[in-house]
Amino acid sequence: VMRFAAGDHAGARAAWLRSLEHRPSAWALRNLGALARLEDRLSEAVSWYRRAIALLPELQPLVCEYCQAMLEAGEAEAALQYIAGMPAALRDQGRIIAFAIHAHIETGEFARAETMLREETIITDLREGERSLTDLWFRLHLLRIAEREGVMPDEALRERVEREYPPPAHLDFRMAVQAAAERPCASSTPSATAD
Fold first, then answer.
1. Residues 191, 27: contact at Cβ < 8 Å?
2. On the CB side of 73, how many CA atoms lie within 13 Å of its CA?
3. Integer distance in angstroms from the first to the last C-alpha of the chain?
């Protein structure tokens, strides 16, 4: 982790791999996944996260990162299957429901995604100014209109969607000035948490 913090990604990767030679560690696996995501090696990231999840299957922040990695890697159908197989106590958490909505959008299940978005799901750790729910709302309508009209989703269509499809109040936690969209789960930088 110190190597990663110093910018030595290759050294950090080598250290985490050495750690795994000594004993399985969800944290080393997770950190390798986070590093692969950071370096845009998305399929590799999913593989590392899958191995970490096998060791800590119900750790919600890790589950969130795994879902996010699958969606970033274009594995929305796999994300839906994974979510469907979760214990209900985990699957019914607001963040996990948001990942399911995102996956439904990416697989073209727009009606299902909209129905889920219109339900007042509570995300207990939603931060003021966070755009994750409004981003899902706008993406739903962007892709739906693009498909219906046979056009590519571009900036002009995105602006049209934001004008014509205001999000329901229960989804809109944006602030007047938004510095940056926040990630929907825990930080994806490697951590030093011990197991």
1. yes
2. 25
3. 14
Residue 14 is classified by DSSP as H
The DSSP secondary-structure symbol of 186 reads S
Tokens encoding 183: 């990630």
Nearest to 56 by CA among 17, 84, 28: 28
Residues 6+ away with beta carbon under 8 Å from 179: 129
**Spatial contact of 140 and 105, defined as CB atoms under 8 Å apart:** yes
Check whether 117 has a pLDDT greater than 50: yes
Give me the helices (H) in 150-185, please.
155-164
Q: 192: which 2 tokens?
A: 């030093």
State pTM to two decimals: 0.85
Nearest to 102 by CA among 87, 86, 83, 120: 83
Cβ neighbourhood burial of 152 (10 Å; 0-12, 13-18, 19+): exposed
User: Which percentage of the chain shows pLDDT scores above 90?
Assistant: 78
- Helix (H) or strand (E) run with residue 167 in it: none
Whole-angstrom CA distances from 131 to 84, 97, 107 are: 25, 15, 21
pLDDT of residue 175: 65
